[in-house]
Amino acid sequence: MRAFVDLWNEICETRYGIKDPKYRRFRYGVQVNSLGLTEQQPENNVYRILIEMLAVTLSKNARARAVQLPAWNEALGLPRPWDQQWSLRMQQIMAFETDILEYEDLFDENPAVERKVAALKEDALAELALIDGMGGAVEAIGYMKSRLVESNAVRIGQIESGEITVVGVNTYQTGEPSPLTSGDDAVMNVDPTTEAEQISRLNTWRASRNPEAMQQALDQLHKATLRHRSSRCAFNCRSQSCVTTGEWADVVRQAFGQYRGPTGVSASASNRTEGLDEIRESVATVSAKLGRQLKFLMGKPGLDGHSNGAEQIATRARDCGMEISYEGIRLTPKEIVAAAQDGQVHVIGLSILSGSHISLMQDVMTKLEQANLGHIPVVVGGIIPEDDADRLRAMGISRVYTPKDFELNQIMSDIVFLADPDHQAGPISAQ
Ligand code: B12
Q1: Collapsed DSSP state (helix, strand, coil) of residue 317
Q2: Ligand 1 lined by 312 (C-beta under 6 Å)
Q3: Of these four, 39, 98, 134, 405, which has the most CB atoms within 10 Å of its CB?
Q4: Is the pTM of this model over 0.85?
Q5: The domain containing residue 105 runs over which residues?
Q6: Can you say whether residue 180 is alpha, beta or left, with left for phi > 0 and alpha for psi between -120 and 50 degrees?
Q7: What tens digit of pLDDT does each residue of 66-89 get?
Q8: Closest Cα partner for 43 from 71, 79, 19, 2?
Q9: Lowest-confidence segment of 20-24, 46-50, 232-236, 316-320 by average pLDDT
Q10: Span from the CA of 306 to the centroid of ligand 1 (angstroms)
């Protein structure tokens, strides 16, 4: 963040000509890195959060004005009130029991920190020049997305190989069972009546509104979109009060279509195939038995935008020699089943981190049955509590993965196993 605010200040001045330093100050709130918080030995996450909080609190000139701390169970599910309270106490202890916040920047003129900041700035400026050379961020969006996927793949590969140490994950894995994760209410489950109540409130509100005013508002919006052909079409506040976001967004979608961002996952394999020889060989063997290349469909149903897992699984499957189909986030179960049918896939993989895995999977499995595709093995991954994993397996889902399954090669072996016609002929072993 020190590098970031420095760059912001410099770029605002030199590129945008903002003279007054006051207007070049970037103030922000920051959440510590939750991607690094683990499902295994989740109590260790508290130390990770505390150490990461120090980076911005000791560094006054980094200008963070608020820190948001996730909870110890970040990779398990939503934090309960007590989990949030425990995280809040971390900030309160730092603020009220220590004098850390009383000082000016504690990193200033530290040679190691300055070297690091200079190196980060240099790299960032080189990247910005590259993006400028491509015509700017909009033109370079595909490039930027693929770089994000690529850098995540490198990180995951390093954890798998042990190049990066993650305590409790790839080292010091054994230990005493955690009392925090035991008990029926260890993971927060959203009460299903909440959804029903919300839907009922919405229906009551819909029934109470003036249908003519609603239609008029939507027609006005439709006309405005046709006139302007721009997403900045006029839509006044009065109209908004009688239509839902879904209703007005549908009108805008009809006019402009729906944007599907680049997935960052190209069809052609990367050169990162080191350590994959054995799996590539088994993919080739099974492909020969199938009479064509093993095809894996990676689907991301529902509304959650957590694409990292789907991208990493698709990327590794591709690098293992599978033909992949991945259209990105927010597909409907109907679209996923159609993709499975059109693509004649051998295994379907779904990624769901929104918590709605039970209803979405039920829907996908029913639609697969209806399309006579019930024989295709389905695997799913995401934030899925163990009790729900049992329910998913009972629905016929072959494998369930969660963040603790960090060894992607093991997942790939399972997929190859499930696609193998010799195994499909016999019973599939339980997970
Ligand atoms: C990164 C992250 C984000 C990023 C997502 C960026 C992106 N493009 O993916 C951002 C910041 C955008 C984000 C936003 C939100 N997030 Co978030 N996020 C995370 C976080 C920290 C890590 C997820 C991740 O990328 N992991 C890395 C990948 C590689 O791991 P993975 O997806 O789990 O996949 C692994 C396995 O699960 C499995 N797998 C997964 N999918 C599949 C599929 C197949 C076929 C197979 C075989 C295997 C497999 O294999 C992978 C390898 O191990 C998690 C917490 C955590 N530490 O897990 C919360 C988390 C998922 N987020 C959560 C929430 C609530 C949100 C928000 C709603 C917050 C908010 N109020 O705005 C928004 C929703 C955004 C949206 N539009 O949907 C919750 C979900 C709670 C739940 N399900 O009960 C979590 C669990 C945090 C929490 N404890 O509250 N988030």
Answers
A1: helix
A2: yes
A3: 39
A4: yes
A5: 2-139
A6: alpha
A7: 999 999 999 999 999 999 999 999
A8: 71
A9: 232-236
A10: 5
